[in-house]
Design a protein that fits this description.
The protein is mainly α. It has 6 helices and no strands. Helices cover about 60% and strands about 0% of the residues.
């Protein structure tokens, strides 16, 4: 990338990366590394409707920043304890009720919370 300047940097989800690569594949033939990235993203990206629904629900809670929301959506946590581990990257402590609300978005139940 000699001679290129970074104009903007923002995190993207696996879903978004898949869409970007798929769009580029329609315009040009993908090189080997792009094809591998597309296959990887295809295996891990959730469908767009579910992604949009979960993203809006997490944003609506107002508890998490956009990077943490993307991480949660990419990992699609199987357990409430995984949710707690992912959100621990935030610079604040979450109450059990807040963790339970975030876990509920994914249909998970936090143990010990009514």
């Amino acid at each position: 990338m000699i001679g290129r300047n970074v104009l903007e940097s923002k995190p993207v989800s696996v879903r978004d990366a898949f869409e970007i690569i798929e769009k580029r594949g329609k315009d040009n033939e993908l090189i080997y590394e792009q094809q591998l990235a597309k296959e990887h993203a295809e295996g891990f990206a959730m469908d767009k409707a579910k992604y949009d629904k979960l993203s809006k629900a997490l944003e609506g809670l107002g508890l998490l920043d956009s990077v943490t929301i993307i991480k949660l959506l990419d990992i699609n946590p199987p357990h409430a304890s995984t949710v707690r581990q992912i959100i621990s990257r935030e610079k604040k402590a979450f109450s059990d009720e807040e963790v339970a609300k975030i876990a509920a978005v994914f249909g998970l139940k936090e143990k010990g919370v009514a």
